[in-house]
Amino acid sequence: MRYVAPSTLEEASAFLVDANGNGRVLAGGTDLLVQLRAGMANPDTIVDVKHIDELMTIKEEADGIRIGAAVCGQAMGEHAGLNNTWPGLVEATELIGSTQVQGRASAGGNLCNASPAADSVPAMIAAGAMISVYGPDGHRELAVENFATAPGKTNLKEGELITSIKLPKPAEHSGDAYLRMTPRTEMDIAIVGLGVALTLDSEGTVTAARVGLGAVAPTAMLVKEAGDALVGSKLDDEALERAAEACRKACNPINDKRGTIEYRTKIAGVLLKRVAKIAAERAGS
Amino acid sequence: MAEKTYKWVGTRQPRPDGADKVTGRARFGADFDMPGQLVGKVLRSPHAHANIRSIDTSKAEALPGVKAVMTSADMPDMPDEMAPAGEVMVNLRDVTRNVMAREKALYDGHAVAAVAATTEAIARQALALIEVDYEVLPHVIDVDQAVAEGAPILHENLRTKNVDGAEDTLTNVAARIQFTKGDMDSGWSQADVVIEHAFTTKPVHQGYIEPHAAVASTTEDGQVQLWCSTQGQFNVRGYCAKLLGMETSQIRVTPSEIGGGFGGKTVVYGEPLAIKLSQKAGKPVKIVMTREEVFRGSGPTAAGAMDVKLGATKDGRIVAADLNIRMQAGAFPGAPVGPACMCSFACYDIDNINVVGFDVVSNRPKVAAYRAPGSPVAAWGVESAINMLAEKLGMDQLELRIKNAAREGTKTHYGPTFKDIGMAATLDAAKNSPHYQTPLKPGQGRGVAVGFWFNIGMDSSAACHVGEDGTVTLISGSPDIGGSRASLALMAAEELGVDYQKIRPIVADTASIGFNFLTGGSRVTFATGMAVVQAVREAIDELRARAAKLWEVDVEAVIWEDGCAKPAGSNVGDFEPLSLAEIAVNAGKTGGPINGHAQLNAQGAGPGFGAQIYDVSVDQDTGHVTVDRCTVVQDVGTAIHPDYVEGQLQGGVVQGIGWALNEEYIYNDKGQLENTGFLDYRMPVASDLPMIEPIIVEVPNPNHPYGVRGVGEVPIVPPMAAIGNAIAGATGIRMTDLPMSPPKLSAAIDAARVSEAADD
Ligand SMILES: Cc1cc2nc3c(=O)[nH]c(=O)nc-3n(C[C@H](O)[C@H](O)[C@H](O)COP(=O)(O)OP(=O)(O)OC[C@H]3O[C@@H](n4cnc5c(N)ncnc54)[C@H](O)[C@@H]3O)c2cc1C
What we know:
The complex is a heterodimer. By secondary structure, chain A is an alpha+beta fold. In chain A, 35% of the residues lie in helices and 26% in strands. Chain B is 29% helix and 24% strand. Chain B folds into three domains: 18-24 and 457-602, 2-Layer Sandwich (Aldehyde Oxidoreductase, domain 4), CATH 3.30.365.10; 32-137 and 206-297, Alpha-Beta Complex (Aldehyde Oxidoreductase, domain 3), CATH 3.90.1170; 304-455 and 606-755, Aldehyde Oxidoreductase, domain 4, CATH 3.30.365. Chain B is an alpha+beta fold.
């Protein structure tokens, strides 16, 4: 097994191409090292991307904030601009693991590990985040909800890696929030994770809303119908119930050791109502 | 309540092993290494139940770097009878089969072969090269299904003990036991109110942080050294000697520091395999389990399915109690059904009791002890039913328990009559606690439950060596899993009248101290404590004799007080007191080294009783339970070291909260365990827990020089039922099956809503 730590994107991509499908990117390693130890991954080449500046910085741009793919949760939590604009995404990221894990775990790793239960992903979907990818064919961009294709699978092609995640600048009176259901309070994996980002007008009516839903289908997803159900409402019970129903309908979970189909489906609706209220409160303040 | 005042006993001193543990210097099982050591790895069955037609190890043996391969063929078969091994009676035929499968694999994770190789990678590769020809058989996981007609049979030779006419019947029921007291018909006829309900628990793992680890080194002349993490080095020695056909004196076992055991490290798994592989390879072999192996291959506690029936008069006097409990033993007989039956109603003074228990095998790992084995399972049913009775009677849950509490003179349904016990004092302390006196907040529920454990005595040896500078080495053979070294040193300091810091307690290997039964049954501070006190007193007698010699007086004329020899009275003569150090420095001139030894079979363990109070809130939409407040009250006899007593009480509660709310084994339809790690086997984390308030009650045990009872097991008995009772208070819903996990509680809440709506 070879370990390399390039300082440019071009080199990183070249190492991955060289590895011929047997290379793995190493960001925080909180998924990858666990998989190596368990014998679930056995790459020839490990490409540590933490020496590439672009992947390690958070940049405020005119139309939003760009987060380097390997920036750890702790750094995101300490970034004032990010906390002010996307507190829901920050809280989702900070749910990952423990203090120790936070010092390493990245949003890029969370995305690329492609677990349906990844905590930051529904929040990124709700936020309308875009992923920047670099590879042998140069740069490309895609929406977060289009990135994972199946549990553990993404649409990254050979030699490609994520460079950054771009969050749009939210409109005025916007807010986002994320909640997950876990049997334990910490160190657990979401049975359902749900993020909402919404915008209110001066009357408190919802003018735009996006709902990201995780852990209830092979990949985290955008539930457009749920967002649509909230638009035009003041989050009255009826609108919330319609959005909750849309979330329940979107569920396509499995019965597994982490939860039953019935329970996951029910909780998707419960969380929608709770999260939408928190997001609206933030939007209003 | 303790009337005596002590200088050291009852104080909170730093633990002797503390510095090593907080600096990472302490050596746990996996920290031992030998030059030239090989890595041992175990091949485990992927099938819950399968005949083993053949095992071909030739390819593994041919792999470069592989130094030894073993199967059950390398160990002698054992007769089907109970035999002593390290003073525990065990069926060695079963033990050898659990350590390594013979004709059958009986659970997912059952060891079938083992290898020793120069590296871990080679060892793993070798495991993959071992070819096992399995004939997969139907399996059974659940205890009531294992009892049902037509269930897959695990052992062709198994017959139900204590049942007439069972000689010809294939069965998974290994034994039936029964305890009765009074007359049930008369009991039921007096009852105005009757409660009858079924309850189940799930097997839970002890969850010790340190996986099992052992290093074995053998020599050409047949001597074996073994370093391992265990609760009983003498028991490990006994088991290994029997299983490998060796003499105990050939095996020297050194216990490491232990990262938790809770009963689970009282048996052997990799230890005999490491010895055998080492014998075959001629090199030291180290076997360390992974967490997955711990879950798949080592004992959880037994689970139970039970029916409880209680009858009471209108004024709340319980007049009849019936329990029928089926306990799951895992793949081999030996569920703690005896203790479960005995503990079930031990907290109460009830005239008419009938308890029947069954020991049932199924395709899961053989159970091992876990804090108060059996008692928490029975308490889940009994203590839930007691609350149902209180609800029906319209009585306060604590008042009902106080009214029926076992007291001095209560004759138990399993035989003994209680003498000096603290059940009533414990309940009074619970009632008067700040917690019970505080009203609930809106939405909260409060639950109470009580628990019992016998506590045990058994064999201990101890030695007290006085050094030439007057400091003392205190030697026992009891692995310290809960701060017992500190407690033993405190008792020695009290006896000797010297500073606690002058006493260094150590845990010795099997060749350096006489036999000690394992650390379990809450026995160490009681039984080994007694041995320590006796050993120290013997040393004190010797110290007095030396002073007498120096003063040229009779030994009877010398007393020991405040760490010094003193003349017994003014008529003895005018002598300055001689300190321990002063006598020690001249030991060579007065007769040689000064030591004390003791070995005993400790009689008169004091029964332990506890009561716990929980306030919980329930998220009505998700079924998530938050434990808001918890108070744990227990009669501990005397708290020798209050910190470690409180630690035991709090630790039991933490494990009980996990057992109550989330812990369970999840099997797929092939009988394979799916949650083999702490991510999906959900023990509580710190943020799941409230502050746990301990209240120590001290009703001294008259049979111990310092009144010790034993504290480590009672605290895990009440939590499950107390939390179930609190949930019932918060929701009106009675949960009867553990764990009370969010999906289950949420479904129960929804079902109740539906039926309420239908009633409206
Ligand atoms: C104790 C513990 C608790 C955890 N708790 C949670 C939790 O609560 N919620 C949760 O969602 N997750 C949790 N995780 C999982 C993990 O921490 C997260 O998924 C984390 O975000 C992964 O980030 P990382 O930087 O460590 O990724 P790594 O392990 O470095 O990488 C993960 C995967 O992504 C690939 N990868 C990483 N970066 C890139 C890139 N830029 N381009 C292409 N591929 C890339 C890697 O090759 C690998 O396949 C936990 C893990 C542990 C060990």
